[in-house]
TrEMBL record:
Protein name from the UniProt record: Probable glucose-6-phosphate isomerase
Enzyme's top EC category: isomerase
GO molecular function: carbohydrate derivative binding; glucose-6-phosphate isomerase activity; monosaccharide binding
Biological pathway: Carbohydrate degradation; glycolysis; D-glyceraldehyde 3-phosphate and glycerone phosphate from D-glucose: step 2/4; Carbohydrate biosynthesis; gluconeogenesis
Top-rank lineage group of the source organism: Archaea
EC number: 5.3.1.9
InterPro entries: G6P_Isomerase, Phosphoglucose_isomerase_CS, SIS_dom_sf, SIS_PGI_1, SIS_PGI_2
Gene: pgi
Record-level GO BP terms: gluconeogenesis; glucose 6-phosphate metabolic process; glycolytic process
Amino acid sequence: MQVDLGNVLDTASAHGVSRETLERLDGRVADAHDRIEQGREDNEHGYEALNLPSTTDPDAIREAVSRFDDPDAVITVGIGGSALGAATLTDALDSDVDAYYLDNVDPEAVDSLLDSLDLSQTVVNVVSRSGTTAETLANFLVVREAMADAGVDWADRTFVTTGEEGNLRDLAEKHDLPLLPVPDGVPGRFSVLSTVGLAAAAICGHDIEAILDGAAAQEARLSDSLFDSPAYAYGAVSFALAERGMLQNAMMPYAESLETFSEWFAQLWAESLGKDGLGQTPLRALGATDQHSQLQLYRAGPRDKLVTLVRATERDDVDIPETDLDGLAYLGGSSLGELLDAEFEATEASLVAADRPNVRIELERVDEYSLGELLYAMEAACVLYGELANVDTFVQPAVEWGKRAARGLLGGGDFEEADAVADKERLVVE
Ligand SMILES: O=P(O)(O)OC[C@H]1O[C@](O)(CO)[C@@H](O)[C@@H]1O
């Protein structure tokens, strides 16, 4: 994996940063690295996530899922970091096992999925670090009833990944379900390289050891200089550009297999860095598709965006047949991969031509090792950015207000937030 910062330099883009700026910032990166390493050494909450390449036990994960022999499908019931990491992995990699995610409480979507599956051949993976998340528990109860209605013994087809205590752990212990622990000091958005992200990948037959090896490779690159660590290079440049007004970051992979990765990145970046009025808003984009959509805004809208372009340098390809169609002959004899690469490079150059800074991240190919590299590097980049921005990276207090309001509306307790909902201002136009 490599990170190319060329297009964020002021020699490329008038709104970029100078090498001198990066060299000055490198001193702060060294201090941040020392803080991060101390946090890792002391297994401090959050920093512990950066130890997962060595603390995650792939054998324990395989053991926990070993009873589920050759399922047709696996449904992960979880939300946020309890689903997005696993989804990033299983959506990026081919498998004979279909992986589905119930990470929302849209009744039509839940009903449609459950109706479509043979639940006797489906494994259910219920994931919640807290064990109290309403959406996850509600969906689990619905799935459990659907299995009962289908004559399936749900306890035979279900395993649980959860924290040290809570409703889910109680349920698993009551019904003697396979139980995987969520590592205590790892927030959900940083948990992909733990039981939370890897169990579904293991059920789908993916090489979870290779994922951890790739992550370990990026762990080994963490250093006291952004010029020696792809992860820190990305985190430092994202921070430096945000300080200069680039308060949005469009994550734009040129691979359909990485579309869910952008969603995972959005939670990691937003929930970690959106604190004290600060942060950099992650935008989900996809190349080449969004060249015919959001690129107009990225090139000609407000000068408030960093664009992050990600591609694999190796991929399976598809030839474009020769054609005598007027104006299209130039495509014939080429390939879709060559077209995708040309569009990737053209988009980079078009952004620079409009003085819009952009970073290139290149993986060798979209496989387990490279995914491990990318995921670990983005986590480390996020932790570094949080140190430089001096925010509390590993908490998310702002999400709690809405949870209390929703719970109050459903009669789950007496919460003043629910009263505020009743007092909504109205100006209805029909
Ligand atoms: O794993 P849990 O505890 O169900 O939490 C799910 C998600 O909800 C959040 O806690 C936010 O509400 C995320 O940080 C987390 O990934």
